[in-house]
Amino acid sequence: MIPVLLILVPLLTGLAAFILKNEKTVRSWALFSSLLTLAVSLAGLTLLKDAKYMAHQCEWMPALGSSFSVKLDGVGLILTLLNAVSFPLIFIATWNTSYKNARNFFALMLLGQAGMMGVFLGMDALLFYFFWELALIPMYFLCSQWGGEKRIAVTIKFFIYTFVGSLLMLIAILFVYSKTTDRSFSLQSFYDVAVTLNSKQQNLVFWLMFAAFAIKMPIFPLHTWQPDTYEQAPTATTMALSGVMVKMGVFGIIRWLFPIVSGASFQWGDFITPLAIIGMIYASLIALRQDDLKRLVAYSSIAHIGLLCAGLFTQNTSGIQGVMIQMFSHGINIIGLWIVVEWIERNTGTRKISELGGLAQTAPALAIFFVIIALANIALPLTNAFVGEFLIFNGILSSYTQYYVWFTVMAGVCIILAAAYTLRMVRKVAYGNVNDITSKVTDIRFNEKLALGIIVILIFWIGVFPQPMLDLTNGVTESIVNKFEVIRYPTVPK
User: Fold this and answer.
1) Could you list the residue range(s) of the whole structural domain that residue 34 is in?
2) Among the three residues 242, 261, 280, which one is the final residue of a domain in this structure?
3) What phi and psi, each to the nearest 5 degrees, are found at residue 186?
């Protein structure tokens, strides 16, 4: 019941939004829909935790062995909650932003939310792929219709990258499907195939799936679509992309890649981890040189996603659990940064860091929120990101690889670089002397204070009391780690 509602609420309200004419009405409708989705998500975490409410299955395409099977469990709980929390924040923060053809804009945003919910809930490979595409299609239209001057070229680039990734994933899904004994797309049938795949087949499936998920995250060198898209897309869409959608790739690795091809995942860990770290360093160095706020935050996101990827391939409890909580923390923090960036661009007419300064004097409330979120972004103790990054670093340091010291040191360098470009941004934007551009601005409005205030509360709540978040993912983490333990320490025949 709960998983079905999490998909149906944004899907049906999104379709209904197409027929609404008044911009204020459709804006209120979108906010109502997102709050209703949040209420359903919280009900699933508190009042309706019984197993009968957390899963649903019915026939969909029986001739193909595919069913409409959805379930709320493990990492899905974290990411559906992130999805449910993010969209009200986005709609509240951008309440005063006007859009041409507003009904189409908000309808597509809700459809994108429905698609992402389906990705996190789907327990059938074909259903998972269906929702994967459903989540992407609205984003193409949002970027191409409401983006900046270069939106068409950027959207085409975004489309090509993600289309190729989707095609590779579909090939992998069909290959695994052909190996199932019951010709079924069910998650369990795919897991059962794992023991039948030889080394070459595992490597084939691994690289097909990993490429698709790496494009979505994105991981260096498949990242080039992201900064351009984030820069040109409307800020509300950018919030959804960076806060929620990029987590689809991380989720795909946890839910589908590791359990199906755990042997290949273990084998290629020493290749993927340095690739992720190189991407972190690369993105951090570029961020250090950025004068555009949007591109700086975009490259910051790439660096943080690289750390998530490195944490995944530690293949131990600490690293994977750190990734899970960090996905939620990064999603919240990055949305907060985008809210600040959107306000600065709207009120000053510029995104250039060199043209700003002194906002702490003219917009003190904004500056306070900005500083707190920026400090959370660099994982200051007592903030949400500290918990996740601490667990990830502990996972890297205690990983199976012989290069764990080097991986830990290089990841630590990336954290230092993140602190450098983030604090540089805060110093030049919030502090220093007021200039002609920043002297005339007024402080943030109530809706922006509300959205940023909720984000700050979540930052400190998770930072001080993270255990409830960790408890949500214990079962999934243990099952994944157990698969790798079998590979590392196979039973010796007596």
Assistant:
1) 1-261
2) 261
3) -65, 150
